[in-house]
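Q: How would the structure tokens look for this protein?
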Amino acid sequence: MAPTPHHLQPILTETLLDPFSSPVTCIYGLHSGIVQIYTCGADLPYQVSFLQAAMKFMSTPRTDAERLQLRTHLFQCHCDARNTALVQLHHPLPPGVTASDIYELTLFYICKMLQKLIVGFDAKGKDVKKRWPTRYEDICPLRSSVPVYCDALVGWGADGVHGSACFTLLGAAAWVWPELRTYVLATPRIFALATTHLEQALTRIPTQNASVLYSPRFSTAVFACAADFFHVLAGTGPLATDTMLAPPGIMPRMYQVALRMQAHLAMGPGDAAVACEWFNAVCRQNGSAFVPGGAAPPPPKDMEHGYMEHVWGLLVQIRNTKCSIPGCTSATASQVSRVCGACGTARYCSKAHQHAAWNARPHPHKALCARIQDLRRALHMEDAQAWTRLIHDTEAERCSLQFRRLCTLHDVKPMFGRAILVAVGYPGIPCE
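A: Here is the predicted structure in token form.
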């Protein structure tokens, strides 16, 4: 019988607190145990000490030599064969997966686990059920200055090849920590480094087959940098996207990455869809559109759930677009956008564009606006502030879950989602 996460917690905690000399487990056991905890849920009460150790492990400043030493140490198996729990953690590696792949996946799962809990952190909140984090000190356990903390996280990916998972954690921390967010947005080298990781990811695709999306060194870099970092920061303010793409050379590099990514990403739920949204935002700034897979996305197959999943992604994309006029490159688009007062979703760079979109062909906003209002009434979300919080707070996973729960709670029929998809001319959705 495999060990439960409850038994794994002290083993993994000891390894993370003393990674250089701990004889507890190697990278294979560490990866297997963390995946089990990630699957079972990191918010269980006995996981707090593990989460504290994981956060300290990621945020401790280290030199390049120390990180190399850490990799070398974890790659060597020094596990006690008499420990049944450790032996059961050593699963055979899938064909073609190397120790370096396992190392990258381990870092990604650690950061993803921390991200899921950090994005729900509210310094002013009074959630008595929340066990971690409950204060800013939990996110920065060493109480480092903002620059030192940021450099400690970014250092994992400093070579532009390994450790891209650090951007998942950096994006989550910047989302809830205003001082860190301000520092990150004012530091162009971080955006350049994340872009380098995306460029490197494109060199790790062995074929043109989209099924290789989940090859470890490709998917971790794309999900961490595009979905969890760039897209998260883009949602922190109307000028965030422009700020990240403004440093010399970043926009042309990112646009080329987006163009090349089209053949390897497919629109759908999860991190891949969020990455597509970021690349679409980049393409829109260049007057084009991101077409994942080189073709229009397939229509939803599940009538009861598929429509609403696609509608959620569509609403997020519309709300995060500075101007809903296709191909708008107006200079005023960089200013604070106007939001449609009726649907509370579509944004425009100017009053003129807002008026033009109302009856624009072939998909006038007039039709979409009415359908979104129907959906809001069905969800009992007529209050403008409540709707804005739900649809604009796109990077916090809780909002996607909240949307699905609201649909279930109020028994929202698929026809509401289908009507919205028809209004925007979503490929594969018949008009009748």
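The CA atoms of residues 283 and 289 lie 5 Å apart.

Residues 343-423 form one domain.

Upvote if useful.
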